Amino acid sequence: MMPPGWAFGAAWTLLYILMGLALAMILNARGARGRGTAILLFLLQLALNLAWSPLFFAYHKVLPAFGLIGAIFVLAAMTTVLFWRLRTVAGVLMLPYLAWLAFAATLNWQIHLLNPNADGLAPGAADTQISL
User: Fold this and answer.
1) Which pLDDT value is given to residue 82?
2) Among the listed residues 93, 71, 74, the one whose alpha carbon sits nearest the alpha carbon of residue 26
3) Low-confidence residues of the chain, pLDDT below 50?
């Protein structure tokens, strides 16, 4: 079952606030062992997160998007563990994000199963989408 469209915007707004608070706690953990690695993993998973939407929505690459969300989940889980070790509350703040990623991966997989040829729906780069 697909949630209503507004739920996605509300969920991502809350998740980004929680993630930002978690990151702020880690940024303020100056001198803590593993802080640099935690920040690097956070930034890497965030970059992949930002790449997911165009891959899924613009290019209709549903199966590669599923693989990408799997990679995001693994990196976010590693980030959560490192955050937890540095500041327990920062790790706890990342848990809703992990839950949402699992939910999003499930939706992504279901969409793949229901639309096996979705990648053929996106127009080619040279296509103007103008019919004569």
Assistant:
1) 98
2) 93
3) none
Name which of 98, 92, 109, 85 is nearest 34 in CA terms.
Answer: 85
Dihedral sign of CA atoms 60, 17, 102, 7 in order: negative
CA atoms of 81 and 88, how far apart (whole Å) = 9
Residues sharing a CB contact under 8 Å with residue 58, sequence separation 6 or more, in sequence order: 122
3 state DSSP class of 121 = coil
Number of C-alpha atoms within 13 angstroms, CB side, residue 21? 15
Cβ distance 26 to 36 under 8 Å? Answer: no
* Angstrom distances, CA of residue 96 to CA of 54, 69, 74, 114: 23, 15, 15, 27
Q: Is the pTM value of this prediction over 0.85? A: yes
Distance (Å, whole) CA 1 – CA 87: 36
Q: What is the pLDDT of residue 117?
A: 84
pLDDT tens, residue by residue, 53-84: 999 999 999 999 999 999 999 999 999 999 99
